[in-house]
Amino acid sequence: MRFRRSGRRRLPARRSVPRDFGRRRGPRTWRRTAAIVAAAGAFGAACAGIVLVAPIVADLPLFTISVVSVRGNECLSSDEVREFAGILPGTSLLRLPRAEALGRLRQHPRIERAVVAVRPWSEVVILVTERRPLALLAAGDVREIAADGRVLPAAHGRFPKDAPLLTGFRGADDPRLADALRLVGWLAEEEPQLHDALSEVRPDSGQALSAYLTSGHFWVRIPTPVDRARERLRWLRTVTNDLMVRGVAGAVVDLGYEGQIVVRPHPAWAAAADSAYAPPEERAEGGQENRENRRGA
């Protein structure tokens, strides 16, 4: 009688791990350990050799800085930049303190950005971007001041830049000074004609600034913050030009009123009642009626 075989395959029997398995592979393990120890020793010897040889290599003439070039400087002399950075000819390129030099350069009030680059094999280039003076701050003495409020030290052999004079402020920490700097910066970018005529900016009574324009001898009263009065500042050039065409000089132009510009004679020139001023376009449209409405308001 035949029995039918099942379709399942028999699984291979498990092979038992011989007891001497570890002992058979022992010699290979020792060889690997010995190789690792030998490699580590060789690496340590190489590092020690580099440490001993590095000072000798650093003093080779091949790696000695012979030229330190300074670019981008206007007010500061090249010698001042080199001395402040601490990089002088004769220093080894392998001992160049680049990070320390950049840190010192960025701490200088006149330097806004700095880059130290190496040109093979013996030249170092220091590229600096100086802060540009925006105005002159008269607080005790007259110093140049940048747009970020940083007071710039006096440059040797150079007169201060011809810029608007900021007077009446307690110093660089006066909170009203930020609005004055924003005003001067905005006029320099948006209204260069008015900026060229701007001679002085000082704090006025209340939350306002007074700016003196040499063209027409106008005092302009500007409310703070200055950002809210930009629309009225855009009309200022048209107003002052129209006043000069009409022969009006020595007036006070007040921008402190929403939707209108008030012009009144300066007390030093004449004593008269305030008069409301309408821009030429509004005068052309409304004529005398517009001016009367403004005066009534």
In short, what is this structure?
The protein is α/β, with parallel strands linked by helices. It contains eight helices and 13 strands. The radius of gyration is 39 Å and the shape is elongated.
Describe this structure in words.
The protein has 297 residues and is α/β, with parallel strands linked by helices. Among the domains are: 61-130, Ubiquitin-like (UB roll); 173-296, no CATH class. Helix content is 36%, strand content 24%. The chain has helices at residues 21-58, 78-85, 98-107, 177-190, 192-197, 230-245, 280-286, 288-296, and strands spanning 67-71, 111-119, 123-130, 133-139, 141-146, 151-152, 165-166, 198-204, 208-213, 218-223, 251-254, 261-265, 275-277. A ten-stranded mixed sheet has the order 6-5-4-7-8-9-10-11-12-13. Helix 7 (280-286) crosses helix 8 (288-296). The N and C termini lie far apart (127 Å).
Protein topology:
Blueprint: H1 21-58, E1 67-71, H2 78-85, H3 98-107, E2 111-119, E3 123-130, E4 133-139, E5 141-146, E6 151-152, E7 165-166, H4 177-190, H5 192-197, E8 198-204, E9 208-213, E10 218-223, H6 230-245, E11 251-254, E12 261-265, E13 275-277, H7 280-286, H8 288-296
Parallel strand pairs: 1-3, 4-7, 7-8, 10-11
Antiparallel strand pairs: 2-3, 4-5, 5-6, 8-9, 9-10, 11-12, 12-13
Helix count, per DSSP? Answer: 8
Could you state the order of secondary-structure elements as H and E? HEHHEEEEEEHHEEEHEEEHH
Strand order of the largest sheet: 6-5-4-7-8-9-10-11-12-13
Low-pLDDT stretches are 49-54, 270-297
Determine the strand fraction and express it as a percent band: 15-25%
**Total strand segments:** 13
Gap between N and C termini = 127 Å
Biggest sheet character = 10 strands, mixed
- Shape descriptor reads elongated
Radius of gyration of CA atoms, rounded to a whole number: 39 Å
Structural class: alpha/beta
Mean pLDDT: 77
Proportion of residues in helical segments:
25-40%
